[in-house]
Design a protein that fits this description.
By secondary structure, this protein is an alpha+beta fold. It contains two helices and six strands; from the N terminus they run βαββββαβ. A hairpin with a 4-residue loop joins strand 2 and strand 3.
Length: 102
């Protein structure tokens, strides 16, 4: 096991990124201390001490920065995030997701 976190950058192409981020902040806010910056259209999701995601509304969709303790957790959390975004973007789903690791 390594102490170096795994960081992945993703993009969920959609028409209403800010709306979906706001819905995720509200949804996950029942389980964790989420935050939303309306000026930047940015949601922050601290899933655990080692896993977090930041989602920012962009003209082309939702930009996602996902940080996890290891590669396996990163792949797992990508799926969790994708399923949740698709749930709120049901009129557009399934969305196209592009991921790259840092």
């Amino acid at each position: 096991m390594t102490d170096t976190p795994v960081i992945a950058h993703g993009l969920a192409r959609c028409e209403k990124p800010e709306k979906y981020i706001q819905q995720l902040v509200k949804h996950w806010g029942h389980k964790m201390a989420t935050a939303y910056d309306e000026g930047d259209g940015m949601g922050t999701f601290p899933f655990s001490d080692t896993t977090s995601a930041v989602m920012t509304a962009r003209p082309e969709g939702i930009a996602i920065t996902l940080t996890t303790a290891d590669a396996e957790s990163n792949v797992h959390m990508r799926g969790v995030i994708e399923r949740h975004i698709d749930r709120f973007a049901f009129r557009e789903a399934p969305l196209t997701y592009e991921w790259s690791e840092q």
